[in-house]
Automatic annotation (TrEMBL):
Presence of keyword Membrane: yes
Name recorded for this polypeptide: DMT family transporter
Record's subcellular location: Membrane
Start and end residues of each EamA domain: 8-140, 152-288
Main location: membrane
Keywords from the UniProt entry: Membrane, Transmembrane, Transmembrane helix
Length: 304
């Protein structure tokens, strides 16, 4: 039963990454009509409303201290992470941001080892990390050897990786409170939106809902709000609850792989041999870090 639940956790994390890896398409389309901060605010507002409809019963924390964990998760996983990532893209290359953000599993492992019980580090984690980061770097280059270092942009991208690691650890703590995943995710979205409000005064923002009259804008925003935000944050948080912060975060390695595959399928972008080699290295790193082959063998044995 435990192995089957773990397998379900892996499938939930994989499903989440498959969706998150494709969000660049919707975001790219929406950027024709919306500012980055507008997309961010609208998608999480929509996600919050969807979760409210799914589980309208309010979540009442048994202890006031627990509310601080939700506040921290909303600040880190929603507000700071996406703001740091989006602002970093205005200062440095997207490939730099992609590589630096993808090192968040390393920071997650360090923080989880320090602050969580049962989150042990194994040598295969570091071996997998090295392989995955090498692969992600190759994917980021994708045939282009023009490197451009920008301290501000790269620092913000690295900060995004750190705050996502903090979010993962906080969600692991929250999962121990015994509340429902949907209600916990909704509470996190609430605080994320609350902390996002001050940023609306510093970046170009207007409601301009008439832009949603265009079907392409409406459909892409629905995908980001209902799919990538409401559904995927819930499945990701459930995976963290089931597998732990470290094991779940390792799936972030696969985001660039999914992105480059869908860029070829949907946007017809060219994939070089360097990108293919990076994809193979990244997947190898994921297999090594998660020890997925052993999990599948055990699940098959229990199933038979």
């Amino acid at each position: 039963m435990i192995e089957r639940k773990n397998l379900a956790g892996h499938l939930a994390a994989l499903f989440t990454i498959l969706i998150w890896g494709t969000t660049f398409v919707s975001t790219k389309v929406l950027l024709r009509s919306f500012q980055p901060i507008e997309i961010l605010f609208f998608r999480f507002a929509l996600g919050y409303l969807a979760l409210l409809l799914a589980k309208p019963r309010p979540l009442r924390c048994a202890q006031p201290r627990q509310e601080l964990y939700f506040m921290g998760a909303g600040l880190c996983g929603v507000t700071l992470y996406f703001l740091c990532e989006n602002i970093a893209l205005t200062y440095t290359l997207a490939s730099n941001v992609g590589v630096l953000v993808s090192i968040s599993p390393f920071f997650t492992a360090i923080l989880a080892h320090r602050f969580l019980d049962g989150e042990r580090l194994h040598p295969r984690f570091f071996l997998g990390f090295a392989a995955a980061i090498a692969g992600i770097a190759l994917i980021g280059l994708n045939g282009s050897f023009v490197l451009k270092l920008n301290p501000m942009g790269d620092l913000l991208a690295a900060l995004a990786a750190v705050v996502w690691a903090i979010y993962s650890v906080l969600m692991r703590k929250i999962s121990g409170f015994g509340y429902g995943t949907v209600q916990c995710t909704r509470r996190v979205f609430f605080y994320g939106l609350l902390f996002m409000i001050p940023a609306l005064f510093f970046f170009p923002f207007e409601f301009g809902l008439e832009r949603l009259a265009q079907p392409v804008n409406l459909l892409n925003l629905l995908f980001l709000g209902l799919g990538a935000s409401a559904a995927c944050f819930a499945t990701w948080n459930w995976a963290v609850k089931t597998l732990g912060a470290v094991k779940t975060s390792i799936y972030i390695y696969a985001v660039p792989v999914v992105t480059i595959l869908f860029s070829a399928l949907i946007l017809h972008e060219h994939i070089t041999w360097m990108a293919l080699a990076g994809t193979a290295l990244t997947l190898l790193g994921l297999l090594l870090s998660e020890n997925l082959l052993a999990h599948l063998r055990r699940a098959r044995t229990h199933g038979s």
